[in-house]
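Batch manifest line 252
LIGAND: zinc ion
JOB: complex structure
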Amino acid sequence: MKKLANLHALKNDPLGFILDTIITIVVNLVIPIPLAGELISSLRGPVLGCLVSILLLGIFMLVTIGTIILSPFIVSSSFLEQITSSLVVPSNIAADDSFIETSIPVQNPLGGAGMSYTSITAYFLDTNYLLQFGRIHTGVDLVPNDTYFKNSKTYKETNQVVIFSTINGSVSHFIDEYGGETVEVTNSESTLKAIFVHFSKVFVNSGANIKAGTPIGIMGKTGFATGEHLHYEIRIKSGNSWGITDPLQYIQ
Ligand SMILES: [Zn+2]
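JOB STATUS: finished
ARTIFACT:
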C-alpha cells in the first residue's frame, strides 16, 4: 500500500523529484570542493587554489539557499497541481440544486432524499471492517443502489457517479497516505468538516469556497479500497483535534 502512495507522489510531483536530485548533487559537491582546491593549489599555486575553493563554495551556498527557499513551495502542498492545472467542474456536470446551503451535512453526498440513493458497505466503527482490515472505520462507505441508477438526474445526464459537497465550506484536496484522492470541506466556523475519499477524478482545488450541492468529483477506488465506493466521514472540532462521528446521524 505504501508503494502505491509513493508511485502516485512521484507521478504527480516531478518538481519534488527534481528537488531530490538537486539535493543529491549538492550533498555530493561538499566532499569534492576541498579536494579540487587542493588539486589546483598544487598545480597552479595556493592563490588560485584558494580562489577556486571560494568560487565552488559560493555556488554550493547559492544552490543550497535556493533549495531551502524553494522547498516549502514545492514540498508542502500540491504546488505543481496549482500552477499547472486549475481543476474545474466539467461543463456537462451541473450543481445539484436539491441541496440546501448549510454548514450541517444533512444531505446524502450522492443526492436523493435521505439514503434513498445509496447502500452502505461498511458502517461507522464497523466491526467486520476492523476484523477484515485491522483498522478502525472512521466513516461510512457508500455505493449507489438501483434507485440511484434509475432516478438520479446527474447519473442519467453524465453516466458517472458524481459526488456532491454536503456542506458550504472551503476545500482541501490531497492524496492520502494510501494514494486515495481525498477532498475535505471545512465549514467557515472551522467546527465541522466533511471528508470524501477514493475519487477517480476531483473537480475542486484546495482553497476554493464551495456550496453544498457543488460537484466535487467522480466516485472511484483510489487508495485503500477494494472496489469503487465513497468513503464519507464527518469530523467535529473538539479542543485541538477533530473527533470522529457517525455521518448517518446527520443525513435526513
Ligand atoms: Zn471507508
